[in-house]
Specification:
Blueprint lengths: L3 E6 L3 E7 L4 E5 L2 H14 L3 E5 L5 H10 L4 E4 L1 H10 L7 H15 L9 H16 L10
Parallel strand pairs: 1-4, 4-5
Antiparallel strand pairs: 1-2, 2-3
Helix pairs in contact: 3-4
């Protein structure tokens, strides 16, 4: 049987939902919680683990999952929101989000992709900071 995992990443906690069993659990987003998560997922041997790109909070979680050789897809949150809306799931809690992410994983099956190495991640963070510090141009402006 194929297993799909949805992880909703928050600042201090990870809500996890498994499909098709419907099992849900949460762990802390710290070293001990990541060890618990990876141990549990390795036992399950999922077909795919999916989480949203959440502005950086997902990086350490994605690194732990990828280091455990588990198939991982980090997806744009808009895809998950659109999918949840299309399936009639409009409520917004971390537990419901994790279930929607797992359902998305099972139904859409986005390709698992390796995460960027440490140097590429650092460069990406620098580019993002630079972009944030530059003044925004107005549409139609030539400067």
């Amino acid at each position: 049987m194929e297993h799909f995992v949805g992880i909703d990443v928050a600042k201090d906690r990870l809500d996890v939902h498994l499909r098709p069993s419907g099992e849900a659990f949460a762990v802390a987003r710290d070293g001990e919680g990541l060890v618990q998560l990876v141990d549990r997922l390795q036992t399950l041997a999922p077909s795919l683990v999916v989480m949203e790109a959440t502005g950086g909070y997902e990086t350490i979680v994605a690194s732990a999952v990828a280091a455990a050789q588990l198939p991982l897809a980090v997806v744009n949150p808009r895809q998950i929101r659109d999918f949840a809306r299309a399936t009639g799931r409009l409520a917004k809690t971390d537990r419901i989000d994790a279930a929607a992410i797992a359902h998305f994983a099972e139904a859409v099956r986005p390709p698992a992709r390796p995460i960027a190495d440490a140097e590429a991640q650092a460069l990406g963070e620098l580019v993002a900071r630079r972009r944030q510090s530059l003044p925004r141009r107005r549409p139609g402006s030539s400067k």
